[in-house]
Design goal:
By secondary structure, the chain is mainly beta. It contains one helix and 23 strands. The protein has one helix at residues 162-172; strands spanning 3-5, 14-18, 24-26, 32-37, 57-65, 69-78, 91-100, 105-112, 119-132, 137-143, 150-157, 176-181, 197-198, 203-207, 212-218, 224-225, 228-232, 240-243, 246-247, 251-253, 259-262, 266-267, 271-276. The strands form five sheets. Strands 4, 5, 6, 7, 8, 9, 10 and 11 form an eight-stranded antiparallel β-sheet that branches. Strands 12-15-23-18-19 form a five-stranded antiparallel β-sheet, with no helix packed on it. A hairpin with a 2-residue loop joins strand 18 (240-243) and strand 19.
């Protein structure tokens, strides 16, 4: 029941495997997570989850699968007693991976240690160079003074080469959006900066108003590579997307009624984009 995922521009496939402890790990995409309790130091190497306890259970979910991207979630549960399993009351670490067709992978980790022993430091160590939300690049992110019970980290892993460097720069310094028709109150849950860029998924996010959304994409000085957009509707069938008056063919309508599309290549100048369609009913919850 293990899986293999092949990505473009990488020689080594991603082996998604469930370990002896029941936790699912994402091969070389999986960062080493090292936790240190009060008065302890982060280990020099490997994974260290000791402060979360010895009882462990894992769950792997396919969140999204289409021609533009795949989204997977791996949740690690740490029950405090036997028989306790997946619930919001159980301490957990949830990894979400958004993997794009050009080889980019955006990872989000959320640590919920509510009710557990205090964690003093957290270290995230990646196998390849990463662009961490907040401005740092490299192969590690260390939070030496972990405050509170919930922690969150987001980063981009990009293919090697010039395209990967541009993708990393775009993640740290995303393009600007200038909406003329949009729902002003629509923000992606993962958009911590409220700038229209969802750092948890590595895409731009807007909300339609009455089935319409018009905006200008203003790229940074070096351009923006293969930008991906999510426009929340909800839309029914028959949504059209155009850029500078030219139709975009590869448009995906997601299960929640939003629209997902990508612009190919490097956008180096401001470009007008329009999304139009019939507004549909809100999806059932």
């Amino acid at each position: 029941l293990d899986y293999t995922l092949t990505l473009p521009h990488y020689r080594e496939p991603v082996k998604i495997e469930q370990g002896p402890d029941g936790l699912w790990r994402m091969g070389w995409l999986q960062a080493d997570l090292r936790l240190a309790g009060t008065g302890e130091k982060l280990p020099e190497s490997g994974e260290s989850l000791a402060p979360m306890g010895s009882r462990r259970l894992g769950q792997l979910e396919l969140l999204e699968h289409n021609a533009i991207r795949i989204r997977l979630a791996s949740t690690w549960y740490f029950p405090s007693r036997s028989g306790q399993w997946a619930s919001m009351a159980v301490r957990q670490i949830r990894w979400e991976y958004t993997i794009y067709a050009d080889g980019r992978c955006v990872a989000q980790g959320v640590l919920n240690n509510a009710g557990g022993p205090e964690i003093e430091a957290v270290g995230i160590f990646t196998s390849t160079d990463a662009a961490f939300h907040g401005g740092s690049t490299g192969r590690k992110l260390i939070v030496s003074e972990f405050a509170g019970e919930v922690g969150r980290w987001r980063y981009l892993l990009a293919p090697p080469g010039e395209a990967g460097l541009l993708a990393a720069d775009n993640y740290l310094h995303p393009a600007k959006l200038r909406p003329s028709i949009a729902a002003g109150s629509a923000w992606a849950p993962g958009d911590g900066d409220r700038d229209g860029f969802d750092e948890s998924q590595g895409c731009y996010y807007l909300g339609a108003r009455g089935g319409q959304c018009r905006f200008v994409l203003a790229p940074p000085a070096g351009g923006v590579l293969n930008p991906v957009f999510v426009v929340a509707g909800p839309f029914s069938a028959g949504v059209s997307v155009s850029i500078e008056g030219l139709a975009i063919r590869s448009v995906v309508r997601c299960a929640n009624g939003s629209v997902l599309f990508r612009l190919e290549g490097v956008c180096s100048r401001p470009m007008a984009i329009e999304v139009s369609g019939r507004q549909g009913p809100s999806p059932a919850r």
